[in-house]
Predict the 3D structure of the following.
Amino acid sequence: MKEIVLSPDEIIEYVRNEVKVNDILEISYNRVFAPGVVLGVQEEDPESYEGLILSLQLTGELVSDAVDIDMHKLKDEIIELYHIPGGDPDDKESLIIIEASL
């Protein structure tokens, strides 16, 4: 397990470079908790650098829909990310906890 603290812009950079399809990602932002499996990461528009879209298949007990999250729109509201590369929920050794700095 690894814990790191990143600024909102560094979180965007982390998602862009480190999060892959089938990884497990839990995002806490504002008053929302979104646990799920990554279905895809759509890169930003090369001119405007807007629209880093993260697609998640939610794994909640009440909601299990697929959602698209625009990381740029909520980067300042992110509180915490739990990232398990490779998608094995039992692999606690690979868990990366990212806390947002203010």
Notes: The first helix runs from residue 8 to 18.
